[in-house]
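Entry for the shared binder. Reason: the reviewer on the internal report wants the predicted structure included alongside the sequence.
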Amino acid sequence: MPTISRFYGIVVFINYNDHQPHTFTSRYQDQEIIVEIETGTVEGRMAKRALRMVLEWLDLHQEELMANWELARQRKALNEIQPLQ
């Protein structure tokens, strides 16, 4: 899974093999979540503070995430997305 962003120890990936709905994966320490890009629905567990940061980052970069998801479906190189600052 290609890394598309890193911030505050959080790593964000998009899996080339993902199917609908549009999702990305985020890891923090030994915790992992899968987030639906359009709704923000979260599957998995992550520390509250890290989860809030991931969801804030999602709100800021939703369009870029959708574009990357489409690139992944086409097996093309993904674009890096600016980290949360």
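Summary line for the report: The CA atoms of residues 12 and 65 lie 10 Å apart.
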